Amino acid sequence: MFIGEAIERFIIAKQAEGRSPATISMYWRCLSLFARFTGSMSITDITADTFRAYLNMLQSPERQAHDHNPHRPSSGRVLSRETVRTYFRHVRVFLRWCFEEEYCSHDPTRRVKMPAAFDHGPKDLHDGDLVRLLDAAASTGKMRERDTAILLVLADTGIRAGGLLSLTLDRVTLDAGGGGMLEVIEKGQRARFVPCTGLTADALRLWLDVRSAQPGVNNVFTTCEGTPLAYWGLRMMLKRLAERANKRGNFATPINNMGVTQPVGLIERCNPHAFRHFVGRRWIENGGDLASLARLLGHSSSSITARFYTRFDTTAMRREHAEHSPLRGLINEKGGTAAAR
Q1: The predicted structure's pLDDT at residue 122
Q2: What distance in Å separates the CA atoms of residue 75 and residue 147, rounded to the nearest whole number?
């Protein structure tokens, strides 16, 4: 069986499993490049050496591997380490599926290690950035209630952009005494219940009181015209709020519960996913446990949460180290042991 035919069968299998259109699209994207790399090879001819050669090609500056138009010239850029790892994971799933379906007699990925990850540091908002974004949202005119509610939902729950935009009125429960519960559907049709605080629930009430929608539109978040808010509309909204906040200045803002202030400069990272990283960091800083955070964020494993959503900048790391250092309480700053005091 040729690679192309195996890929088509694999895609049909994933569609039958109910995978989301975005997931199917990503599989096509990664596997199409793998098919071009292997050419007319049969699935039985793929070996560990073939897979390693493919990985080397992805990491080579000689061609722009993520450009799927073969007629476009190479830009000479090297793919990021995380992009290479993404391609690796999707092709590995495909090849292991071929082995399980007995299209080949061995698993060519078994001895191939995933390229090491590169730690880019925290990808979240600064605490002060959220305060400034909320101030900017309060001055956005007739959509200020919507923008404020979106910011608080993202920063309070850590739901993905898809979950936010697909949220419908029948899946929002706001308690009379404060707080609420959101039934969020993300990554296909997987649903989970996510709580929100009274502050977020109040913001949602204010928005729902003035929300306008065209007939048949049940989405919580809509546009000025009453149509469902789309992903790029959300991105542009966040971009506009960041630009407005940057123009307003006020860069010295509280960054922790102790009221300490620090100049944070311009807001540079303001996208939906940055809020998920913000939630992860703040949850851990406020004493939350990793397992609960994983459930909140909708992760299948807490190891994913630990790797991507609990990163700290150097200031926070120094503060944590000063509080939890193994030497604290054992050796005093002058070199003597604590027991000798």
Answers
A1: 57
A2: 38
